[in-house]
Design a protein that fits this description.
three-stranded antiparallel beta sheet, alpha+beta, 37% helix, seven-stranded mixed beta sheet, single chain
Length: 468
C-alpha cells in the first residue's frame, strides 16, 4: 500500500514570493522577552490571518480574496511619485481626489472618457499618513468590495449593493466620509486596489507637490467634451464617452494599465507604501458573528474568496471600530513614526512562505505519484520531509520508545521563527495576533510533516531506492 498523507488545505496561503531581506534590529535591548515565554494570542483562524497578512499590497491575493478583511496604517515615503490624469480644463485639483502609483493607471481611467487629457506628476513632500484596506477595495459594482470601508464609516454594511455599476456619486460620498474620519484621527489618505493600487488623497494642497503636467491626449482624437459636461473627474458621467472609434493610443491604455498592475501581482507587491504591523487589524480576529456565519456556510477553512463581512453583528463592528481608533490614537501619539528597529514581521512571514511553499508543493506531488511503488515513494518522502524539518530535528533521543522527541520537534518547528527576543513594547495586540497566526499555521504544517517523517523512519526502509 502506498504511503498516504493529507496535506493541509491551507497550502493556498503560501503565495510563491520573491526573496526579501529581513530588517536587522539594532540598538540596546532592555527587558528582552522571548515569544515562548508568553502565551501567544490564540485564534482558530490562524491560517486565514496568516494568509491575509502575507498578501497585503499584492495583486493576486487581493484579487482572489476580493472582500478585504484587513485594515492597517502606513506611510508613503517622501519623494514618492504619484499621478493624476484629468480632463478638467480648470487645472489640477485642490481638494479630495485620487492619485495612482502607476502613471498607466491614471492615463487609462481617463483616456476612455475622451477629450483633452492632462497627466499631472506629483511628489510627496513629506511622509504621507495613510490607511490601507485590503481586497479589491477600489473596485465598484460587486458586493463585498466596499464592506470594510462601510464598517469604517458607518459601522454597518447595507444589505444590497448601493453602488450598481460605476457610480461616481457614491465614490464621492465615500471619499468625503473617509476623509472626514481621517481629519479626526490623523490619516490623510486611503490606499486601495483595483487593477492597480491607488491613493484617495484628502487634500491636494497639502503633502504633495505638482512637478509637471504633460498633455497626454491621443493626437488622433478629434472630439472634445461638450461645454456642459462636468469638469470634476469624481462627478463626470461616463455616458459622455465618445461613440467614435477608439484612437490608437487611447485604445492601448487598458492593456498598459493591466500590465502595470501585474508588476505587483506577488511579493514584494506595492513597495511604495510602508505598512505598520503594530497596527494590523483583522476581521478574522475574534469576531464571533463572522465565525458563526462561516461555520453555517461551511467556509471556516476557506476559501477566502467566499468570505464577506456582510452579516457582521453591531457588537463586532463596534469592536473593530474601537480597535481602529485605538491604533490611530497610538499612531498620532507616535507622530506616525514607524520604528525601523522593530522586527520586520512582513518580511518574516514572507520568509516563511519562501521556506515552505515549494517543498510543500513537491511533497503533494510526490504523495500523488503513480509511477513509484510503495517503498520508493516512502524513501522519497523520508528524504523530502527530513529536508523540510532538519532545522528543528534533534535525534538525541530518537530511539527512545517514547515519542517526546517528536512533540518537542513539532514545538521547535512551530516556534522556530517566533522564539527570538522581543521587547514588551513590541507586543501590541496586533503583533500577538500575527505571532499567533504564524505559530498556528506552522503547527499544522509541522505536525503533518513530522507525522509523515515518523511513519517513514518506522518502516526500516533501504538507504536508497532501487528503481526498476
Amino acid at each position: 500500500m502506498k504511503l498516504q498523507g493529507v496535506l493541509l488545505r491551507f497550502l493556498g496561503s503560501f503565495w510563491l514570493v520573491s526573496t526579501l531581506t529581513r530588517a536587522i534590529r539594532t540598538g540596546r535591548e532592555q527587558i528582552a522577552l522571548s515569544s515562548s515565554n508568553f502565551s501567544a494570542y490564540k485564534t482558530e483562524n490562524s491560517n486565514l490571518i496568516f494568509s491575509s497578512f502575507a498578501g497585503l499590497l499584492q495583486q493576486w491575493p487581493n484579487s482572489f480574496a476580493f472582500s478585504g478583511h484587513s485594515i492597517i496604517p502606513g506611510l508613503i515615503p517622501r519623494s514618492t511619485l504619484l499621478y493624476h490624469a484629468t480632463n478638467n480644463i480648470n487645472g489640477p485639483p485642490t481638494g479630495i481626489e485620487w492619485l495612482a502609483f502607476n502613471s498607466e493607471m491614471s492615463y487609462s481611467i481617463l483616456s476612455h472618457r475622451g477629450g483633452e487629457l492632462d497627466l499631472y506628476k506629483y511628489a510627496a513632500t513629506r511622509p504621507l499618513r495613510v490607511l490601507y484596506v485590503d481586497g479589491q477595495s477600489a473596485s465598484l459594482g460587486t458586493p463585498g468590495f466596499m464592506d470594510s470601508q462601510y464598517i469604517i464609516i458607518d459601522a454597518s454594511i447595507p444589505p444590497d449593493n448601493p453602488d450598481p455599476g460605476h457610480d461616481p456619486t457614491g465614490e464621492t460620498a465615500r471619499a468625503v466620509a473617509l476623509c472626514k474620519m481621517g481629519e479626526k484621527y490623523g490619516f490623510e489618505g486611503v490606499v486601495r486596489m483595483a487593477t492597480s493600487f491607488e491613493l484617495l488623497w484628502c487634500d491636494f494642497k497639502n503633502g504633495i507637490e505638482l512637478l509637471n503636467m504633460t498633455n497626454a491626449t491621443d493626437p488622433y482624437y478629434k472630439h472634445q467634451w461638450d461645454s456642459d459636461v462636468p469638469t470634476n473627474s469624481l462627478e463626470r458621467d461616463q455616458s459622455a464617452i465618445s461613440d467614435s472609434a477608439d484612437p490608437p493610443f487611447f485604445a492601448r491604455a487598458r492593456w498598459t494599465y493591466a500590465h502595470s498592475g501585474a508588476r505587483e501581482f506577488f511579493a514584494p507587491g506595492e513597495v511604495r507604501v510602508i505598512l505598520d504591523p503594530m497596527g494590523f487589524i483583522s476581521f478574522y480576529d475574534g469576531l464571533e458573528s463572522l465565525d458563526a456565519k462561516r461555520r453555517v456556510e461551511g467556509t471556516s477553512e476557506g476559501p477566502r474568496a467566499r468570505h464577506r463581512l456582510y452579516g457582521i453583528s453591531a457588537h463586532d463592528t463596534k469592536k473593530v471600530q474601537a480597535r481602529l481608533i485605538e491604533v490611530l490614537e497610538r499612531k498620532e501619539a507616535e507622530d506616525w513614526q514607524i520604528d525601523s528597529h522593530r522586527p520586520d514581521w512582513r518580511a518574516l512571514v514572507l520568509t516563511i512562505i519562501q521556506r515552505y511553499s515549494q517543498p510543500l508543493i513537491e511533497l503533494r506531488y510526490l504523495l500523488n505519484r503513480e509511477d513509484l511503488n510503495a517503498t520508493e515513494q516512502a524513501i522519497e518522502v523520508r528524504g523530502l520531509t527530513y529536508d523540510i524539518l532538519m532545522p528543528s530535528l534533534d535525534f538525541s533521543h530518537w530511539s527512545s520508545p517514547e515519542r517526546d522527541w517528536i512533540s518537542e520537534g513539532i514545538h521547535r518547528c512551530l516556534t522556530y521563527y517566533t522564539s527570538t527576543p522581543l521587547l514588551p513594547s513590541d507586543l501590541t495586540h496586533s503583533i500577538r495576533l500575527i505571532i499567533g497566526a504564524i505559530e498556528g499555521t506552522l503547527k499544522r504544517v509541522c505536525t503533518t510533516i513530522y507525522t509523515l517523517f515518523f511513519q517513514t523512519i518506522q518502516m526500516f526502509l533501504p538507504v536508497e531506492p532501487t528503481y526498476s
